[in-house]
Amino acid sequence: MRELSVKTDSKIVLLVLDGLGGLPLHPSGQTELEAADSPNLDSLAARSDLGLSRPVAAGVSPGSGPGHLALFGYNPLRHVVGPGVLSALGVGFDLGENDLAARLNFATLDESGKISDRRAGRIPSEKGAELVEMLNENIDLDDVITFVRHEKEYRAVAIFRGEGLYDALADSDPQRVGLGPLPVKPTEDAPEAQRSAALANAFVEQANEILKDQHPANTVLMRGFGMHPALPSFEEIYELDPAAIASYPMYKGLARLAGMELLKEGEGIAGEFETLRKNWDRHDFFFLHVKPTDAAGEDGDFERKAGVIEEVDAEIPGLLDLGPDALAITGDHATPAKLKSHSWHGVPFLLNSPYALPTAESFGERACAGGSLGELSAEEIMGLLMGHALKLNRYGA
Amino acid sequence: MRELSVKTDSKIVLLVLDGLGGLPLHPSGQTELEAADSPNLDSLAARSDLGLSRPVAAGVSPGSGPGHLALFGYNPLRHVVGPGVLSALGVGFDLGENDLAARLNFATLDESGKISDRRAGRIPSEKGAELVEMLNENIDLDDVITFVRHEKEYRAVAIFRGEGLYDALADSDPQRVGLGPLPVKPTEDAPEAQRSAALANAFVEQANEILKDQHPANTVLMRGFGMHPALPSFEEIYELDPAAIASYPMYKGLARLAGMELLKEGEGIAGEFETLRKNWDRHDFFFLHVKPTDAAGEDGDFERKAGVIEEVDAEIPGLLDLGPDALAITGDHATPAKLKSHSWHGVPFLLNSPYALPTAESFGERACAGGSLGELSAEEIMGLLMGHALKLNRYGA
After folding, report:
1. Cα–Cα dist B214/B211, whole Å
2. How far is B312 from chain A (nearest CA, A)?
């Protein structure tokens, strides 16, 4: 890709409806996308390439991290993003390439030193934020700067900034109550991992002192250590000047991993499309992320998920008026309302350009299964977009 | 898979109709599966994911070894199983990881030392067994224990057990009559291969002495040297407690390579399904192997192959009554009656679970080609089954 990519005036839009893929509630029924009243998407499908995108591997349900890395063209098995990194990105923390991040749970330690509640009685977010502030101000470790940021309720994230850190570390969370917290141990025999483990343990020790009177939130458990994956940027790989429109911090963070500029998004789905219009002349690649499809799927709300798709459908004419040269509409994974969770199923994929080979009259899982792209790997999508936008030189003479 | 697999109560069935894939006898005709009167399979297909499974590589017709390794999720190009190993497993020999196995043919040597019959006049199985016993009792090689086991008629298998053996060896069978048997030669410049070649040649020399009065079976030809591939077991990879129901020793042997427990099968196809029912509560994964589809295909008997499919069809309601959480029905390769041999064609694949996306009203090659799984690699089947049985954790946060 690096060798073939050329800078042109053409513009690419990657519209991601999070968790778009669905399932019929009954074997003879329709999926959320098939059931949605979406005349604009259907009419677009009739002028587009269709296929089913596989995010990671057969049978494997991806998290948002690997799901988006694959959409952005990075191999999600090679580029592993630790949960701590996603949390740090998710709260909008400006994670550096040498920073080590870990998820924190506030938890309850009983008199005998055993964990009696791994979530500290699910303390409210206000309390969580207050305790995070105490940790952030008072933790003081040698040779590293420590940041603590609040996520929600009992969840937070710690970031260590310094030289020679390494994320080959096991969790301190024993995963069960009635056990003592585990010391953080290196999972590889590397001095950087030894040092990082010592820092993490010193962090917990200081946190215990700071929190000792804060029952039930009198300790923290650390898990999901990770470091910023040093991904080559979209500019390096594709010669693109990419921008991202996303309302949730984690997706903004993922976009930043690929070197995208974050655009200030408007309110709701309509607001996101409005942001796209306002910034149309300033970039040649736009990633637009719509979250509520996934949220509805996770809630098992088939109708609401279809409704979100209809809401997006209403924005399609305005999007097409901008004249994108290549437009992909897909999801990072399936979130069928039937499963109430991310799933391994193929994700509907639509690619519109003047160079498409249409095969169906509507946008839906089954239309995509029979599409001209067949089953494709999500990692291939960026290549297809670059090709359809005429941004790739011929390979070989 | 190892990292994502979780132990649950759900149950998986992998039903393999050997050589299931077929072809129309005439371009406008139906395949064996399409022509079969199989209402239960058709009705199941209407509630299932469909696809065409590719066993090894485009255009490549696999043997039973690679065909099944792929179905079991092992890369058949990386894990090469020598024919000698399949024969040893096929006769139920408990092959160890350091054992070297080779296929034997009883053959006829004329007075001038040339092979006059590569199959020793196809001696009956009783005679073959008697000669095998003579070899097994009287062969005596330095530093290795030698086992000889009978397969059928003129075919047998020799196993050398000892340290430092290696299967990089060429056959002694010259593949044509009128030529002398070849000395076994190493195909790699390794001391273990030199030593193993010397052992094989000493074996033939002793066998010639033992068999000298047994015309027409007065020599043995050795071929297909192989060693046990050290495959990670289903328990290691998938946390499954797998069982196999197969009537032919080779398939039992292949199942054992994956760590499956062999269940004593009943008589014929109905007997195999009866074994499944009897053992339903004892395992969470069942491999059920049906051989006669392949045998009919090899015989070029289109009608009989369709008939075997109908016989299996009659067992489907009973199978569904057991309530498998994920059920795959496929073949290890195609054996079209039109070709009278294994072939490279896509193999019909059906996966039934509550989380399927049905696309057709019948089970057949063309319904599968348009299915929601498209063309899939046979190696992906285990991942799909694990996903549909909800036995895989999410990948990444």
Report:
1. 5
2. 23
| Alpha-carbon gap: A157 to the closest alpha carbon of chain B (Å) | 14
CA angle B182, B184, B190 (to 5 degrees): 145
Q: In chain B, which stretches have pLDDT less than 50?
A: none
Give the closest-approach CA distance of B356 to chain A in angstroms. 7
Joined tokens for residue A61 = 């349900």
Residue-level pLDDT at A89: 86
pLDDT at A104 over 90: yes
Residues of B with CB under 8 A from a CB of A: 4, 46-47, 354-359, 370-376, 380-388, 392, 394-397
In this prediction the pTM is 0.88
Helix, strand, or coil here: A22?
coil
Q: What pLDDT, in 10s, does the model give residues A306-356?
A: 999 999 999 999 999 999 999 999 999 999 999 999 999 999 999 999 999
The model's pLDDT over A356-388, given as tens digits with 9 standing for 90+, comes to 999 999 999 999 999 999 999 999 999 999 999
Residue A225 near residue A102 (C-beta atoms within 8 A): yes
Contact A345 B357 (CB under 8 A): yes
- How far is Cα B381 from Cα B326, in angstroms, rounded to an integer? 11
- Which of B52, B12, B86 lies closest to B288, judged by CA? B12
Model confidence at A277, pLDDT cuts 50, 70, 90, reads: very high
CA A139/CA A160 separation, integer angstroms? 11
From CA B56, how far away is CA B78, in angstroms rounded? 11
CB B217 within 8 A of CB B106: yes
Q: Which residues contact A258 (CB under 8 A, 6 or more apart)?
A: A72, A74, A231, A233, A234, A242
Measure the CA–CA gap between A297 and A22, rounded to whole angstroms: 8
Can you give the pLDDT at residue A391?
97
CB contacts, 8 Å: A82 with chain B: 397
Pairing of strands B145-152, B155-161: antiparallel
d(CA A310, CA A331): 15
CA distance A184 to A163: 19
Q: What is the dihedral of CA B119, B120, B121, B123, to 10 degrees?
A: -100
From A371, which residue of chain B is nearest by alpha-carbon distance? B370
What's the pLDDT score for residue A161? 96
| Closest CA of chain B from A49, distance in Å | 16
Chain A residues whose CB is inside 8 A of the B356 CB are: 23, 27
User: What does the pLDDT read at residue B273?
Assistant: 98
pLDDT at A82 over 90: no
Q: Which residue of A has its CA nearest to B326?
A: A59
Best of A375, A377, A380 to disrupt the B interface by mutation (most B CBs within 10 Å)?
A375
Helix (H, G, I), strand (E, B) or coil at A156: strand
